[in-house]
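[job 4417] fold queue: 2 targets
>>> target A
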Amino acid sequence: MTVLSILVVSCMGDLYMQANTILCAKLRLCLPLGSGEYYSYKTMDFSLSTYYNAFDVEKQYDVDLSNVNDTLQRVTNSLAHSPDAICQDEQLLEDLIDLSHSFLSLDSKQRKQVAYLISSSFNNACHNTKQLLDMGDFMDSIDILKAVLERFGYLIFVTLSFLGKEEFPGSGNSRSKQSSVNWKTNCTEVEDALAAITTCLQLDLSKIFVTTPEKNQFLEMFIRPIFHLMELPDRMKSISIKALMFRNIAFSVTRHSLASVVQNLIMQALTYYPHLPPYMAELLFTLNSQFDYPSLTEDLLREISQLEFNSNDSNGPKAVSEFLIKLSELSPRIILKQMSSTAQLLDNSNQSLRCSVVETCGNIVIDILKSEAQNPESIDEHMEHQNMQIDGLLNLLEERFLDQNPFVRTKSIQAITKICSSSARIPKRRQGFMLIAVRSLGDKSTLVRRNAIKLMCKLLLTHPFSATHGTQLTHSVWSERLKEAESELNKYMPVTSYTKKKEDGKDSDDDNENSPSDSDIDHEELNESMMEQESRLPDKATLIKLKLTVQYYQDAIEFIEAIEEGTSVASSLLFSKNRNEVLEAMDFLVLSDAYGIENSQKGIRRMLHLVWMKGSSDEGKSISSHLIDCYKQLFLTAPPNASASQTAILFAKNLIGLTFSASVADLASLEKLLCLLYEAKLIHNEVINVLWHIYNKAGSQEPEYNEANVHGAIIILGMLSSSDASIVQRGLDSLLRIGLGDIGKHDLQLCKFSCSTLSKVIKSNTNTGSDFNTSGDPVAYLRNILLLYTENTEWYEVAEQAITAIFKISPDPIKVCTDFLKVKAEQAFECDNEQQSQAIFLSQLFFIVGHIGIQTIEYLEKLETLFKKKKHEAERKPEDKNEEGENELEMIGGTSEDDFTDAVIYIKERELLFGDNSLLARFGPLVKEVCSNNHMYSDEMLQRSAVLCLGKLMCISSKFCEENLPLFITIMEKSSDPVIRSNCVLGLGDMAVCFNNLVDENTDFLYRRLTDDNIMVQRTCLMTVTFLILAGQVKVKGQLSSMAKCLEHPDQSISDMCRLFFSELATKDNAIYNGFIDIFSGLSSDAELSKDSMKRIIKFLVGFIDKEKHQKQLSEKLLVRLTKCQTESQWEDVAYVLSAIPYKNDSITQAIEGGYKMVQARD
């Protein structure tokens, strides 16, 4: 009977199905048929262990490949007839082994045939074996089944090994076309082999392999090549292959007890292959979810918790960390079971491991909270246990906020942020989270601070107090609500005479001696009060609700106070060196303003100064562009249903509000920002029209057009005019009529801002001053303001802006100033009105003279620049000359730039203050006379104006400066008026820029003002010296110690300014290193400076000496000084500096350990 006849018979009907199936299986495996009839079967020698142990994938096997195609044809025919032929024909087995051993030497077509032949034959053999095992009639054929499986198993093992070794140039999309084809073919062959192994692993191999070692060896032939296949990253990207590999490994663990082998292989994969940790986590997740086998994961976690890594090993801890994190995302509950073991990694010195445990805890908490949200009916059953688990994990996370490594601290904050981002709420812990986040804002690591800000943002966005009163968190509003709730609750509290006294303030809670005793309380009155209150008590539910309401408001206020503290700290981080941190701080301030945090406005105003910052963050976002986005969101965003006019009014009022209580620095930064906003077309013409409308309402009694709003409107208009001068042209008549008219004369602040705005108007191309499209001459209006007599000191600010405007808009400002200066002088010296003070006239005159002198210099420099520009244009385009301009260009061409520059210098040095025809020259001696005789001319404002005028005139001519410098320094030293001393400091700073050689020898007088009695003078001096040193205008000659002492100044602004100075100085050619010895000598010899303060200053300065070469050289110099110290105090100072410098060597260590006695012994 042939196989074909059996197959035909098997299809004849269901009655013969089972019998024929058994018969077919026995025939294919050459088993006894019964009735004494047998097919011949000859056992061949094949030792699986011998072949398995001898195989080496790297070995080149010597195989005859001359007749490969014939061999392939022969073995294919044999196996197609019957897979069990591999046990009958010894030559067939040898041919298959030779083909598999020479797999890499075959061409692609032959490889494909060999791989398919082995995989399909093995798959068929496994199916046949499964049929026999299922029928139970296999006891007589165990050896034969085992032999077939061993032979095909070895062939599959060899084939998979070579498939895993096959190379494919490039990776992913970078592969060539041919390489991609070969890769797809390889993947198909691997899939076929893995599918055959899956069929094999589904068998009950314990029935075939009697001993465990035999079975394990057979299974390892499949598992080890699978793990080798995983070593190629691209292989793991194939979803189908990955699924087959995971399925086979899972079968080997769950059905064949190969967990220990797989565990070792997983550990090896984690140790040596950086791309495998996430996939190993997925493998374990597959085992847990699809095969319900968590034991391997738990054993693996226990083994990982006991690992000890070499201090130089970074790959191992990193791989384990990635594995734990991925596993916590997929199977968090299993890690929770082994948390006691996993938590041991927190004691590991490696930061990656600690980070992974922290992130794992966060993922576990999120999973528990999600499960509660998805299954609310099961909350009551396990509520207490789950709350304990969550509290334990959150406590662990909070502990890591104090970890010594900043990355671990950062990971803790990120874990908390992730938890707060989930839909679940943890109201009881949010207050603690906020306090920890605020505390972390003071961390020395910028990474920690950035993430702390993100956590605060998340806590603010998801705050739990929006249910009853909306999202706003205004402190004053919530405090009022709390008072109302408490008063409502107190209505139901018993009242006695004692409590009334307490409420009236007659009793003190702080003094324990005044606490009520039994004799102080009238018990009868108390009983009556309690009975009366009890009769008025509402039901129990109402009382509970009132108490809960009070507690709710108290919690809200605590939360708001924590946010306000964080907002204050975030404002100080706006000027961090890390740009990303600055961006985070800006976003938080914008968010806190949206939620009504009251002190966020201070931070938003400080944000203005970021407009000057250059560069971009790591993500490419520049600070200034992000500032524009923030201010657009804050002040230039209207409700979606607002009309165009409503939007314009809203934007105008918002912009005006920015000017309220703004300092000069705030206004300068605001002007720069508004120009950027206008250029970005975020401020439209409708807004400008509203601003002009508000300005035209100056003097109106309507509350919405009060003085502050009108001032703000003209300030904003002036700022926008810097970007588009045509804005001034629109309201030029209003400027002259209101700002420079009668209203402006009574409101000098309005007049000042109007003059400033007028100075930005576009001039006509003609040379007359009446070309403005107005009903009057602007210069005449400005002249009238300057000739105004007033005792209001605000006039001086107006005069400064008016003179500046004249020099900008007048075609001949020198003539205009000469004319009104003569008139002003006549007013001062021919004052007949008893109600008008001559001292005021002189004060105004001196102020005008000084500012005209400064503006004249600036005007001459502009003329010089204009001359050079025209000359360069003439030289560049000589062919463009026309007849009208030919003579002018010829004149320019005949004059060199040096000649023109020399002429300007001569005018400044010899003409302005010494020329016979110069008007300013007449005032120089007069100003000097007033300044020299301060007792005779004792009016305070007159002296201030005179000294200020003298300082400005000294900036014009070096001759005049040299003549009057001793007088000026004397005034700075001996004047009792701090304003005069401050002006002298500023004047001396300007002179240092103009005539460096004259002032350089007198800088000591300037540094003395750092210790002035008045804080304003100290601050002015520090700012001036800071500018001069950083700009390179003065040479530092040992005075840096005076600057360094300001680091310990009690005034925080001076201390901060000094820190900023040294931070900037450190960037300039090792300036701190070069001057460190002089600084230290000055600090050490200063008897007024405490030792603690000196040590803090030294520690701060040493931080800027970061080059090892400089540290070494400085240490060697100080070591020499250490051996020459004459007193113990000197020795201690030097020893402290040496200990503060990071560089150390044996000589320094021995010298410090020896102490001062060693030096004393030398003496």
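>>> target B
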Amino acid sequence: MNKKQKIVSTTLSTVTALSSVGAISSLPNTVIKNVQALDENTVETTQQVQPTVRTDLEKEVENKNSTVISTGAALQGAEYQKNSSEEALNNAKTNKKENDEKLTTSQNQVDQTLAKEVKDRAQVVLQLQKALSSQKQQKDALDKAVEEKQNQLKDAQDKYNKAQADYNNLADKNKDALDKLNQAEKNKAQSEKDLASLNDQLTTLNKDIETVTTKLNEEKKSLENNKTTLSQLTTEKQTLEADLKVSTDKLNSLKDALNKQPTTEEVTQLQKEIDTLETDIDTKTTQLSTLNQKINSLTTSIEAQTATVNETTKKKDDLTKQYDALTTQVNEAKTNLDTAKTECDAAKKALDNLNNNVDTPELAQLKAELKSLQMQQTALQAQVDATTSQLKAAETELANAYTKYDNNVVNFYKEVYNNTGDLDAYYAYTELEKYDGKTVGSTTVTIYDSKNYDKTIASLSDLQEALNYIKMCNQIRAYEGSAPLKVSYYLMVVSAIQNEYTSVKWGHSQIYPVAENIYGSSRDYNSTDFLDQNGNLDVAYLDKLGRNQNLDVFNTQRQNPFYGWWIEEKVKYEETNDKNVAGHYFNIINKNYTLTGFSHNNQLHNSGYYTWGQVFSGSLVADKLDGSGQVKITGQSVEDFENTLNAWILKKANGVQIEQNKVDAAKADVEKVTNALNDNKQKISTKQTEINDYKDNVNAQFKTAETTYNNAKNTYDNLVNQQSSVKAELDTTSSTLNAQKDALTKLEDQLKADKKKKDTLSNQITDKKTLLAQKKEELANATKDKAELEQAIKDANADVDRITALIDENDKKIKALESEINTNQQNINAYNAELNALNFEVTSKEAKKDALSANIDMLNTAINAYNKQLEECNKAKNALDAAKNNLDNVHAEYDQAVKGQKAQADAVADTTKKLDDANESLAKAQRATADWEGIKAGAGDHYAPYHDEVLDSLSDTVLVYVSAKDTAGSIETKLADAQKDYDEKTKNYENALSAYNAALNEYNDAKADLDTFDAKYGIVTKDTITLPSEMTYTGKQIKPEVVVKDSKGNVVNPSEYTITYGDNTEVGEGNVTIKLSDEYYVGTITKTFKIVLASTDKDDNTTPPTDKKDDVTTTPSNKKDNVTVTPIQKNDTTTTVKSDKTSTTVKTGDSSPIVQFSLLSMLSMFFYALLRRKENKE
């Protein structure tokens, strides 16, 4: 059972034991209550006590129970103290665990944060370095591009200057013709500009004409509509006026009729006139209707013919414009055709020369320059390949830099070996690499892990920690008069490897044949816990602590490995003179040992201890790598080892930058030769392009000239054909238009004549209708009487007024329409005037256009003539224009390149600043890391501010770490004290538990004896003593047979009691007294019985009634039988009377009439017997 299991078991036992104490302590009270119950159940005149044997047993139980109670109370107290101590121990363990967790958590947090920050900042530096390198490469490319563009600009300027000079020279020679040509071109340009302006104006004018024509037609249509409405209103007015005349004539006729009545002959004549007028009106109305239909038909025909004439007129105008335009185009096409023919012939000649391999001087020069550039390219390509290989190697080193310059001791040992060739370092890292990824036995503990080296004893901080312990060892050796040990790289590795084994299974692993000291502790300590502020060990004080165990008992130095290795064993050796008890001590002071290695394992593994290990050797030799022999390992002094280690730490801090600088240098070399190669390639490409362009240009010029000529000829032919076609159509349209106009004139004349006929006929019909109405009125009046005539006159007046009002309304409408017609006419006049003006302007501009076109044709002819005369000069002019365009383009490209160069320079400057800031930030993070390492080593100030804000932000965590580290010693001491106190309290508890268990066992034995007595012996009462309930009177003392039993049914041995009989000589009540001996039974009990007379008549079976106090009922018998009376118990309700022949059971205490009657009968019989006996005596 381990310690933890024992504690748990003891605690459970304590609970059980205490529960037992509580139950047992109540037993004596129960026993006493039982005794009291016995007394209460004893019916006696004198107080009865219990048997002496039981009293002795009960006293023994009470004594043992008191012992149980007292030992139980002591056990409870011991358990309480043990539990309190255990709680204090658990609190101490919890405090240690929490403090350890704080220490580990805070250290891990700071370690991880700083490591991540350094890594992140280094990554930023690396990214900025790459970006800066790329930007510098781009800037260099842009610088070269600017330089190239500058050269191109100079070349373009030179070419322009040359073209300008050539042109000026030719221009001077042909100044007169050139001036005329320039003037002609200027005039032509102006004329073309004017012609374009005229075309635009004509387009606008034609649109205006269309707009005005549309408005004019709309206005004419409105006028015609208004005239038609006016004609209708005029006709309506004429009708009204005729009606008014009729009504007026009727009124006058009626008035005349009223004054004068006609004769019969006059009436008959009047009727004839009316009939004649009606016939004439009907005839003329029919003629008028026919004429209206003819007029409407003519009006429709005129409108249709007018539209046809307008459409044909527009078509003619369009054809005229088209013909004029085609005429201009034909002239231009002819000029272009002549020019294209000349150029095509010249291009054909140049192409024939090229096809016949006749190189011009210019083409031969281009080919020679191309060959020279191709030879240069081969040499440059070889340089690019070489520098590119160097760059890849440098980039590989840079990629490995972060691994190469980490905190792994293997890289440190490799650095030492690479720089010095020291085989001690070589065998150190190769030995460690043998164990990479291997575990100790079947455990998961890795001996060395190159990827997680900080989880084993393989980080630079482990080396720094080990050096501090070696310094302590050398200070002790100096104290002892021994020379200092030197540090062996190989032995440092050996110590670390063996230490990993020890941390898993406690003990010496003995993997390597070296002397070794090992030390284990349940708590981890740093070397700085044992060093003063100057980094030294107070050896003299350590000596004092070892020699005086009462001195500063809780001093942390007592946890120093060298306290146990050195001074404790030294004191033992001095006391015993036995070297076997001081092996560690002699390893430390052994003057034959010159080399050492040390390791401290701060990882807690299966052994349950943090472990320290130191190995020693007198000499080491190493095989040379070439197999030529061996060399002796001399080691390094602690100071030299520390300097080498610090130099490596400094170097690894700048390692990435060093590799980056190599990459930058290699990139610069690659960039330089690559740019040179690219420049050469560009020159080759440019030169080849110049050659190809030269050849292509000759072909292109011919193809262009040939295409231009063919296009010009096709254009000219098409335009001539179109012009002929349009001319024919124009002539046909003109003839058609003239015929349409003649037909329209005839229709208009016929309409005019028909309208005149209509007006005459309408007037005639109106006059005849008026006369007809008048005649009818006269006829009607002639046939009316005076009253009717008066009424008719009244009606006629009303009719005249009505018609007059209608005529007035009609006049208003006519006046309004005449105003609208007047407006229509004014608008038509205005539109006609505007249209005439527009047409005039179009005619004028068309004339100007024709003049300009003719002038342009003339100028083209002149220009062609001048161009032929100035063909060489024109070529120079074209070359000058081309040079000017090239100069402008190159200048724009140069300006753009300069702009890009400036932007890239700004970007480089910005990135450079960012890189400087990032390097400074990285340096600060590295200095902060150094601050933190100093804090962990106890050599640095743990108060902020530090060298970087990241560590400043972790200042609270740093303080937690420092606080946890500072309090670790006191917490460990408190834990040791709590453990010691707990062990003492546990021992006290176990002693108390043993005492309690012993008392409990004794109590149980005593209780068992008492229980055995109680189980074996009962109590003796009146009920357990039996004797006959009645005896026959003899005249002598009667001594009935007495049987004494206890409540268990046991027959009491006669030696346990004495019997005393009463006088028992008279009829009546006798008694027997039984006195118990008090040893096993107690008490004095008196029993009574009845003394009765012997029966004198055999038929007399009556027995005197028994004493009710005995609660006995007897059964009569025919003869004197032996009767056994069994007294009932106090709580019984029946009495059984047994005889040899009969058995009757009667309930006692029953008050039923039957029972009462039986008792009375028995009493009567009893007294009757007594009276007869008295009589007999007498």
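[job 4417] complete. Note on B: The longest strand covers residues 1068-1076.
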